[in-house]
Design a protein that fits this description.
- This protein is mainly α.
- The chain has 18 helices and 3 strands.
- It has a 3-stranded antiparallel sheet with strand order 1-2-3.
- Helix 11 packs antiparallel against helix 12.
- It is globular, with a radius of gyration of 25 Å.
- The relative contact order is 0.05.
Length: 414
C-alpha cells in the first residue's frame, strides 16, 4: 500500500466545511436545529422574516412569522440543503448506525466528495477523497477497482487544482495497477493510459506524451473501433502532443478530422466536438490565420457557455485563448475583456494563486504592454510575481521569469 492509500484513515468523519475542528457523526444534524429560544428584540411584524442565513456545510435557513387562522402567531422554518448538505445528514445517521468505516459510509463519502467538487469546496473534497482512498485501500486492497476509482478521482481533483506533478504520480499508479490486474486492453486500463498521456503533456514532456497518446490511440482503435468516442478523444490528445512539439500542420489536420468525426457521430453540442473546435482554432491562430481563428473561437466560447457553463474551467480557457487572438488582431479592449473574464472566473474557482490565474494574468499584462499601456501591465505583473512567489517560492524559474517581465515593464515606463 502506498502513502496515499494509508493517508488519513480514521481521521475524516466528518470535518466541517472551512473548519479545523472535527465533528462527530451526529453533529452535522444536531448543530443545525433551529433554536427554540425566543428571537431577541422586538416582536416581528405579521408575515415578516424573522431571520435567515447559512448553515455551515449544509445549506441555508429562513424563518418567517405570520398570523394563523385562529389569530395565534405561527413561525415557519424552511431549510434549504445543498446536495452535499443532504449527503452530510445521511452520513451522520449512517455512521451512527453502522460505524464510520462501514462500506456504505465510504461509498456515500465518495459521493459527498464529488458533490463538494461541484460546489467549489475543493479543499474539503481532497480531504474526503484521500480518506476514501485510504479506506478502500485498507479494506479492498490497493488494486481493487473501487480503490482505483477513488484514486483516479483524487488525481482529477489535483489536476484541476493546478497540481499536475501530484496528479501524474497518482495517474501513473492507477495505470500501472489497472494494467497489472485487468490487462493492457481493458477499457479501464486504456482510460488510465489516456489520462496519463494528458497530464504528461501538461507537464511539458512532449515526446513521452506523444508516445503514450499513440499507444492509447492504437489500442483503442483496435479494441473499441476507430469511431468510438474514446478513440476520437485519443486522436485529440495525440494532436495536442504534435501541436506542443511544433508539428502544427499535422496537428491542425488531426484536430480537423476529430472535429468533423465528432460532429458527425456525437453532434455539434457534444463536449468532444467543442474541444476539437477550440483546439483547431488555436492551431489556426498559430499558423497565422488569426481572423478565421478568432471567429471560430467566438463561436466556441458561446457554445462552451451553453454546454459547460460560464464558470467552467474549459469555458474560461476559451475566453483566454480568444483574448490572445483578439490581441493579435489589435483589439486591445476586447482582448482585455476576455482575459479579465478568464482571470476572474478562475480566481473564483481556485483563488488568486492558481497556475491558470497567473498564466491568464501574464497574457493580460502582455496585452497591455504591447498596446503601450505600461501602468496597467505593471499592475498585472506585480500580481503575477506575488502569486508565483507564494506558489513556488522565490528561487523557482517561473518566479524568476515573472520578475524579469516586471523589470522589462518598469524599464519601458522609464
Amino acid at each position: 500500500m502506498t502513502d496515499t492509500d494509508r493517508a488519513g484513515r480514521g481521521r475524516w468523519p466528518f470535518r466541517r466545511r472551512g473548519r479545523g475542528a472535527h465533528a462527530g457523526p451526529e453533529s452535522p444534524a444536531a448543530r443545525t436545529q433551529p433554536s427554540s429560544d425566543p428571537v431577541p428584540g422586538p416582536s416581528p411584524a405579521p408575515d415578516g422574516v424573522v431571520g435567515e442565513g447559512e448553515l455551515e456545510g449544509l445549506g441555508s435557513y429562513r424563518i418567517t412569522h405570520h398570523e394563523g387562522e385562529d389569530g395565534n402567531p405561527v413561525v415557519d422554518v424552511k431549510l434549504s440543503l445543498t446536495p452535499s448538505g443532504m449527503t452530510r445528514m445521511k452520513l451522520g445517521q449512517l455512521a451512527t448506525e453502522r460505524g464510520p468505516h462501514h462500506p456504505e459510509v465510504v461509498r456515500l463519502s465518495f459521493e459527498l466528495a464529488d458533490q463538494l467538487c461541484q460546489e467549489g469546496e475543493f479543499g474539503e473534497a481532497e480531504e474526503v477523497f484521500r480518506w476514501v482512498v485510504a479506506e478502500r485501500g485498507a479494506d479492498l486492497g490497493p488494486a481493487h477497482p473501487d480503490t482505483l476509482e477513488a484514486l483516479s478521482a483524487l488525481a482529477s481533483l489535483l489536476w484541476d487544482r493546478g497540481r499536475p506533478e501530484d496528479a501524474e504520480r497518482l495517474r501513473r499508479s492507477v495505470f500501472t495497477r489497472r494494467e497489472a490486474t485487468s490487462g493492457p486492453d481493458h477499457p479501464d486500463t486504456l482510460t488510465a493510459l489516456a489520462d496519463l498521456a494528458l497530464v504528461v503533456l501538461a507537464l511539458g514532456r512532449h515526446e513521452e506524451a506523444e508516445r503514450l497518446a499513440r499507444t492509447a490511440l492504437e489500442r483503442r482503435t483496435r479494441v473499441l473501433g476507430p469511431e468510438h468516442e474514446d478513440t476520437l478523444g485519443s486522436r485529440n490528445t495525440l494532436a495536442g502532443a504534435l501541436r506542443a512539439r511544433g508539428a502544427l500542420e499535422e496537428a491542425g489536420a488531426l484536430y480537423l478530422s476529430v472535429l468533423r468525426d465528432a460532429e458527425r457521430l456525437l453532434g455539434r453540442k457534444s463536449e468532444l466536438t467543442l474541444t476539437a473546435r477550440i483546439n483547431h482554432a488555436a492551431v489556426q491562430h498559430r499558423l497565422g490565420h488569426v481572423a478565421q481563428a478568432a471567429r471560430s473561437m467566438r463561436d466556441a466560447v458561446r457554445q462552451s457557455v451553453k454546454i459547460k457553463g460560464a464558470g467552467h474551467p474549459d469555458t474560461l480557457s476559451a475566453h483566454a485563448t480568444l483574448g490572445a487572438m483578439l490581441q493579435a488582431l489589435g483589439k486591445v479592449d476586447e482582448a482585455a475583456a476576455e482575459l479579465r473574464a478568464a482571470v476572474a472566473g478562475m480566481e473564483r474557482l481556485h483563488g488568486p494563486d492558481h497556475p491558470d490565474v497567473l498564466e491568464y494574468r501574464t497574457s493580460l499584462a502582455a496585452t497591455f504592454f504591447n498596446a503601450g499601456r505600461h501602468a496597467q501591465a505593471e499592475e498585472e505583473c506585480r500580481l503575477v510575481v506575488a502569486g508565483y512567489e507564494r506558489l513556488y517560492g522565490t528561487a523557482d524559474r517561473r518566479t524568476a521569469q515573472a520578475r524579469e517581465n516586471l523589470r522589462m515593464v518598469r524599464a519601458a515606463r522609464g
